[in-house]
Design goal:
The chain has one domain: TolB, C-terminal domain (Neuraminidase), CATH 2.120.10. The chain is 0% helix and 57% strand. With 287 residues, the chain is mostly beta strands. The strands form 6 sheets. The chain has a 4-stranded antiparallel beta sheet, with no helix packed on it. A 4-stranded antiparallel beta sheet has the order 6-7-8-9, with no helix packed on it. This is SMP-30/gluconolactonase/LRE family protein. InterPro entries: 6-blade_b-propeller_TolB-like, SGL, SMP-30.
């Protein structure tokens, strides 16, 4: 099946990451990791319009809405977590979570309101971790021995975590998750060929959509790891994906490319025949 892929952003980003649909404001939120900038934008028939860009500094991995703050976002940046107000106010929450040399990368929230984010380091080495920021503000190290913690997403009931540690195996794994957020029963779902698996999102049928860096593709996998579909993109380095109804938003990067194309670094949109939920918020559910 051939899908229509549209370039919807007039701007280009060095390393666009972590798109999230913020249903509170009908806005797309994403970050540019390479420039340390948090962006918000609105969408209409003309495309995506950036309405705010907030310089955080350092490296930003991901962001999510906050359930008890109608205007705030929780952000994983540098070695820890902070809150960002709608007008750019910064409130560090947990600063020195990761050890020296590691920095926050991709993440997202589970249905119980925990904000999960993992780390990587330069040079890359298997001494990084996956953490959860609990609704009460405490941080728990959930997984050790990570090299490049990347995409993660939870099943609708919160009992399964789908997780990508990109290197060295280029694999998608699944974990059982108990009521306290503890991980168990790790199993390998799929090994990604021809590129590096990066961000992921789950659709309403329980399938996984994965951005494949350096392959110029987004791929759909069944929850048992079977490859269901591959979509070719005009940008070679897709980084992450998110649903806006039945549209799949794809952030991309131009960083590191010797001769970027006009589409590298753009935000793309793919119309699908299946939808997905907006971003789960951080904080106690129902607050």
């Amino acid at each position: 099946m051939t899908r229509v892929v549209d370039v919807i952003s007039g701007d280009r980003f060095a390393q666009g990451e972590s798109p999230r649909w913020d249903a509170r404001h009908d806005e797309l939120v994403w970050v540019d990791m390479a420039t340390g900038t948090l962006h918000r934008g609105t969408m209409d028939s003309a495309g995506l319009t950036v309405i705010a860009s907030i310089g955080i500094g350092g490296r930003i991995g991901c962001a999510a809405p906050i359930s008890d703050d109608p205007d705030g976002l929780i952000v994983a940046a540098d070695r820890g977590f902070l809150r960002v107000g709608r007008n750019g106010e910064l409130a560090p929450t947990q600063v020195d979570v990761a050890p020296e040399g590691a920095f926050m990368n991709d993440g997202g929230c589970d249905p119980a309101g925990r904000f999960w984010a993992g780390t990587q380091s330069v040079p890359r080495a298997p001494h990084c971790s996956l953490y959860s920021l609990e609704p009460d503000g405490t941080v728990i190290e959930r997984l050790r021995g990570v090299t490049v913690s990347n995409g993660l997403s939870f099943s609708a009931d919160g009992r399964t975590l789908y997780y990508i540690d990109t290197l060295p195996d280029r694999a998608i794994d699944a974990f059982d998750v108990d009521a306290r957020g503890r991980l168990g029963n790790r199993r390998r779902l799929a090994v990604v060929e021809g590129g590096n698996p990066d961000g992921l999102a789950i659709d309403e049928e329980g399938a996984l959509w994965v951005a494949v860096w350096d392959a110029g593709q987004v791929r759909r996998y069944a929850s048992d790891g079977r490859l269901l579909e591959s979509i070719d993109l005009p940008a070679v380095r897709p980084t992450a994906v998110a649903f806006v109804g039945s549209t799949l938003m794809v952030t991309t990067a131009s960083v590191g490319l010797p001769a970027p194309s006009p589409e590298d670094g753009a935000i793309l949109a793919v119309a699908l025949d299946v939808g997905g939920a907006p971003a789960s918020p951080y904080g106690r559910p129902g607050v």
